[in-house]
Specification:
Layout: H1 9-19, H2 24-31, H3 35-42, H4 50-60, H5 64-68, E1 91-93, E2 99-103, E3 113-120, E4 125-128, E5 136-143, E6 145-150, E7 153-158, E8 162-166, E9 171-175, E10 181-188
Antiparallel strand pairs: 1-2, 2-3, 3-10, 4-9, 5-8, 5-10, 6-7, 6-9
């Protein structure tokens, strides 16, 4: 029985990352896999664990079988409706664990438009360094109370309020309520 070569997972990940216009840094941030590990995987210097592959495929929006499958497989007809299942939605957590951001935006727009489902626990703070010049954030509060700060401006928001502010300066969102705050955050970076 002839042996077939194992799939070139590193090359497939590199191609998927490139097709979505993601840098190693961006994919590392979305997947939780370190940039150095990603580089080693793409250069076939290391074999990723199943857990690492799972994180990468979730971040890239593909099924794990697509990385492991044969290149000669007949492609199935693809739907024109793209769906990301709840368990496939990547999440980012703040260092203190009090802020969870679920990445709702498609990966191919990440350099221009991003949007997140944000949960901030009581007294949690989502602090950000300045983004690219001209970047704006649009924050809609679904429940709870938050204080936002953009440079020297500060404002209190509650459920139903939407704030639009400069994000190319230091800025933060802080939960000042007694319960978790829930919001939708959209980040727009000019081309």
């Amino acid at each position: 029985m002839p042996q077939t070569a194992p799939p070139d997972i590193g090359q497939k990940i590199k191609q998927l990352r490139a097709s979505k216009n993601l840098t190693l840094d961006q994919l590392a941030g979305l997947s939780g896999v370190s940039k150095s590990m990603l580089s080693q995987i793409e250069r076939n210097k290391t074999n990723p664990t199943v857990a690492t592959l799972w994180s990468l495929t979730r971040a890239l929006g593909v099924e794990i079988g697509e990385l492991l499958g044969s290149p000669h497989k007949k492609e199935e007809k693809k739907s024109k409706i793209s769906v990301t299942k709840n368990h496939q939605t990547p999440e980012i957590q703040s260092a203190d664990g009090k802020c969870t951001l679920r990445i709702l935006g498609p990966l191919d727009l990440v350099s221009h438009v991003e949007w997140y489902d944000v949960i901030i626990e009581q007294d949690g703070v989502l602090a950000s360094e300045p983004h690219v010049k001209g970047t704006k954030e649009h924050l809609t509060i679904l429940s709870g109370k938050v204080s936002i700060s953009s440079e020297s401006d500060q404002l209190l928001l509650s459920a139903g309020d939407t704030a639009r502010y400069n994000a190319d300066v230091e800025h933060y969102i802080k939960n000042v309520g007694e319960h978790n705050a829930h919001a939708i955050l959209m980040v727009h970076t000019p081309k």
